[in-house]
Design goal:
Purine nucleosidase/pyrimidine-specific ribonucleoside hydrolase, hydrolase, Ribo_hydro-like, 323 residues, eight-stranded mixed sheet, 12 helices
Length: 323
């Protein structure tokens, strides 16, 4: 059952193994009301990320939540997908051959506009992929901004990057879109690698997914096992970080992710630093804060939240999602 005060959210994503867990968390926690899911090209092509979103929702038995495909490339330049991390399908690992519903006939930006304007209360946008769709919404439909409670995005870092030395994948994929969002004047929360690298899917976590004894728990374990193999091969990580669910967790329970207000800018022209997020934590510039930046994570509380949501989603399989 959704709580009567459940917060309305829209998840914009590019599944992606960690996006899959983010969707399950958003759908499985009763404190959120998932109005819709939109997809963007990023971890894989738009066609694949959209199909992956539909597959995850179908596996969790979530119906009645519209899914719309959005932008198939960044605002400028060409798309480079993360096939080395997420595989050819974008969700390599388990068998996800399940019937999926039709995708919405409208563009993701238009669906988001309709859902926001049709909501009785302000909507939180949770973005776990490149910010292309969100930027086009803000640029093309400024009238919706009064109905946006907050934009919470996974992206950037206060430290090093994972795609270039100082650039995180989602921001590097579309720096211009991130710049538009960060300059929007809306309440923004940035969940960067400096915090998500603490949310590690250890062997114990994977074993806990297995121990659920359910199809969805098993799929999560297989997803994380594959994710672990690619993160070890590409980055040398012993355990893979699950970035995207941390953004959802922050919306559900702000105490899990500690943030500080800080000025954040995106480097657009640096030959070696394009896509870097410049976070002025120590106020060395005269710029005013434009984002709440994640700086710490309660790791145990995060995993308890996610495990409970996966169990809830498993229990809801075959039933419509409460709306």
């Amino acid at each position: 059952m959704r709580e009567p005060t459940a917060r309305p959210v829209i998840v914009d994503c590019d599944p992606g193994h960690d996006d899959a867990l983010a969707l399950l968390l958003a759908a499985g926690d009763p404190r959120l009301r998932l109005l819709g899911v939109t997809t963007v090209a990023g971890n894989q092509t738009l066609e694949k990320t959209t199909r992956n979103a539909l597959r995850i929702l179908a596996l969790a038995g979530i119906t009645g939540v519209p899914v719309a495909a959005g932008c198939d490339r960044p605002l400028l330049g060409d798309l480079t997908v993360a096939e080395d991390i997420h595989g050819l399908s974008g969700l390599d690992g388990p068998d996800l051959d399940v019937p999926v519903p039709e995708v919405s006939g409208v563009h993701a930006v238009e669906l988001t506009r309709r859902l926001i304007t049709g909501s009785a209360e302000p909507v939180t946008l949770i973005a776990t992929g490149p910010l292309t769709n969100v930027a086009l919404l803000l640029r093309g439909h400024p009238e919706v901004t009064s109905q946006v409670r907050r934009i919470v995005f996974m992206g950037g870092s206060t430290e090093r990057g994972n795609t270039t030395p100082y650039g995180e994948f989602n921001i590097v994929t579309d720096p211009e879109a991130a710049d538009i969002v960060l300059r929007s004047g809306l309440p923004i929360t940035m969940i960067g690698l400096n915090v998500t690298h603490r949310a590690l899917a250890t062997t114990e976590i994977i074993a806990e997914f297995h121990a659920m004894g359910t199809r969805l728990g098993g799929i999560c374990a297989e997803l994380m096992t594959y994710f672990a193999s690619t993160y070890h091969r590409v980055f040398g990580f012993e355990h893979p970080p699950v970035h995207d669910p941390v953004a959802v967790a922050r919306v559900i329970d702000p105490s899990i992710v500690r943030t500080v207000a800080a000025p954040v800018a995106v480097e657009l022209s640096g030959a070696l630093t394009r896509g870097a997020t410049v976070v002025d934590l120590h106020r060395r510039t005269a710029r005013s804060p434009n984002a709440d930046v994640a700086v710490d994570l309660d790791v145990d509380a995060f995993w308890r939240l996610l495990m409970t949501a996966v169990r809830n989603a498993d229990g809801a399989s075959g039933r419509p999602s409460p709306r």
